[in-house]
Amino acid sequence: MNTPYPFQFTLPYPDLIPSHYDHHIQRRLSALKGQFFDQESYAAMLAREDTLLYEVYEVSRPHLPGELLSGISILHPGKVGREFFMTKGHFHAVLETAEIYYCLKGEGFMVMENPQGETSVEPLCPGRVLYVPPAWAHRSVCTSRQQDLVTFFAYPGNAGHDYGTIEKQGFAKLVVEGESGIEIIDNPRWNK
Ligand code: PAN
Ligand code: ZN
Q1: Which atom of ligand 1 is least distant from the CA of 88?
Q2: Cα–Cα distance, 102 to 140 (Å, whole number)
Q3: Can you list the domains of the chain with their CATH numbers?
């Protein structure tokens, strides 16, 4: 991993799993305790099975400011009640660090907010590049009915992750299936 030399990897279709990676992280329903607004549906679903929500293939580098960590995030389709499957979401531990996402497959949104309480929900579809500015928490949401949402990401090696803030307060906006399609609504349980 600690090579001082340039290196390459490929993202082979159709699965887009990097030809080289250092970590494969799997996050299941139990890892998102308290995040889905319909807690009854969450508990019922979890009682049936601890469903796999998403996977991350990470190409690691030393955790230094001059380095870039990159990889692929694969978010599976599904819903808890009316709310689409989503990542835990986080601020970066070094708040002033940005991130680039490039969507390769599927449909969805990036839900974002900053410590000033500003929010932004940006659509993701193949070919779209999304810039997450420094200090914006980010969570991806898969709204495809059958397809995974697959994104490539890259962020500074020293960024780190602060999951605790979002675990406590949630995100201000939710992405749900409404009467007439996908809706972005205020989170009734948002407790900033
Ligand atoms: C991404 C995310 C990835 C999984 O690599 O870590 O999409 O989301 P959670 O980390 O919120 O579970 C990233 O934003 N890294 O900083
Ligand atoms: Zn991030």
Answers
A1: 11
A2: 12
A3: 23-186 (2.60.120.10)
76 lines ligand 1 (CB under 6 A): no
Q: Hey, which of 26, 56, 103, 111 would you mutate to test ligand 1's pocket, going by the most ligand atoms within 8 Å of its Cβ?
A: 56
Residue with CA at minimum distance from ligand 1 atom 13:
153
pLDDT tens readout for residues 8-47: 999 999 999 999 999 999 999 999 999 999 999 999 999 9
- The finding on whether 85 has its CB within 6 A of some atom of ligand 1 is no
122-150 confidence digits (pLDDT tens): 999 999 999 999 999 999 999 999 999 99
Neighbours of 53 (CB within 10 A): 23
CB atoms within 10 A of CB 27: 16
Tell me the CA distances in angstroms from 174 to 8, 16, 35, 111, 113, one per residue in order. Answer: 37, 27, 10, 8, 12
Phi and psi (nearest 5°) for 14?
Answer: -90, -10
| pTM of the entire predicted model | 0.96
Rounded CA-CA distance 96/165 in Å is 15
Q: Report how far residue 16's alpha carbon sits from residue 173's, in angstroms, rounded to the nearest whole number.
A: 29
- Beta bridge mates, 153: 71, 101
Ligand nearest to the CA of 88: 1
